[in-house]
Amino acid sequence: MVLARHPAKPPPGANTCSTPKGTKMKLMFKMHWALRRAILEDLQRPHEFAFERVGFIACHAAEIKGGMLILAASYQGVADENYLRDKSVGAKINGAALRAALQTSLDHEAGMFHVHLHEHMGQPIPSATDRRESRKFIPDFFNVTPNLPHGTVILSEDNAVGHCWLGSASEPAIFNQIIFCGAPLQLIDVRI
Amino acid sequence: MKRDFSRQSFLPANSEAMLASIKVGVIGLCGGGSHIVQQLAHVGVLNYVVLDPDGMDKSNLNRLVGGTHEDASTGSLKANISQRVILGVNPHASVEYISGKWQDAQLSLRDCTVIFGCVDSIVEREQIERFCRRFLVHYIDIGMDVLRFEDSCRIVGQVAMSSPGWCCLRCMAIVTDETLKQEAQRYGAAGPKPQVVWPNGVLASTAIGLFMQLVCPWHKASSGFAYLEYNGNDSTVRPSPRAEYAMLIPCQHYHTADIGDPFFDLTLLAAA
Description:
The complex is a heterodimer.
Chain A: E1 2-3, E2 26-32, H1 33-43, E3 54-64, E4 67-77, E5 91-92, H2 95-108, E6 111-117, H3 128-137, H4 141-144, E7 150-155, E8 160-165, E9 173-174, E10 177-181, E11 186-189
Parallel strand pairs in A: 2-4, 2-10, 6-7
Antiparallel strand pairs in A: 1-5, 3-4, 3-6, 7-8, 8-9, 10-11
Chain B: H1 15-21, E1 23-27, H2 31-43, E2 47-51, H3 69-74, H4 78-89, E3 94-98, H5 106-109, E4 114-117, H6 122-134, E5 138-148, E6 153-162, H7 177-186, H8 197-215, E7 226-231, E8 236-239, H9 241-246, H10 266-271
Parallel strand pairs in B: 1-2, 1-4, 2-3, 4-5
Antiparallel strand pairs in B: 5-6, 6-7, 7-8
Helix pairs in contact in B: 2-4, 2-8
């Protein structure tokens, strides 16, 4: 799995989500500030050779009227030894890192959201590499926990964006709203 | 007509957008909840779910803000009255009004950012808080009582904010096994509890202040926790001494990983 070092513009019309029957769904993501802080602290640690760090957020979910609520429960960073040397990308991790995340998904019955950081202020924009690479491994999580959503989250220093898969064959859809609960509360209406 | 928020321009620049985006739930729409709803509408909140199973009667006219003599005579639903009050201030607001138990409307409440609980019973407070913790919702609780002594009465009340990761109502000793037991023993025997408009107004305004500081902070001291006590005889609102002790020990009653719907099944949702 590789992650781009520079974001690019997403394709138009990406901010949609619908069930296989075509029903439009609202996707809301909630995370506590304390968890966000812990994730940022881990992702901002320098690595011996990787340009950036990545991790996985274990999530639970619930139905809401007209959509789905995804709730971040805990964070699992990628161990130092599970990064691979590749100067063409920000971070590349090995199969052991992915297997650890799959195991967490299975053990805790959790949806897993790959997370990394774009170190700037404002709305992060997934790069073409981010989009391409996540399609390669996110569907694997549906083999262990098909009843939960999986996806990706990109944090910036003060903002976030995320994509959610409803099934291994589905197109990822962007979170419509991201809420960091805590004080002060932050609500992001995603407009990509 | 576009609203003019120039008189609350001391709030952060994104306040108007924030208040327009968040969804607020109000459970209980009589003495406390009717004040809450009215003030939320005035500050600019646009998305609501308001819930109360009851209709208005003549005994509510002493405190239900927005309720009219005609509402009391005809038994208008309190949820309808709240909707009318909100739309009277913000005609474009989205108001889901539910005349029923909040427990039967959980899908509508899960995506709220903040829920106000304006209910009478301790057990219901705890149920709402449990619900809020599970779906990472901030909970603001208000309540009042009139304590009778031999030759006098004392009006008391509290405003408590319970947020995921912070102290809960049990940490604050608002909910205890003993208070739940006492309430169960009193059930059906006490008759209507005294409720009057002015303490409800104080408590609701204090709760709205906590809410505004949470979502549109105008000063730096921001917290997800508050426990304020109202003394209606002295006309004072003070931080509860219990709050100080509650803050010393991390909450043992709720765990941050116990969230979401344990029975959620994406395959069923996606097939819908």
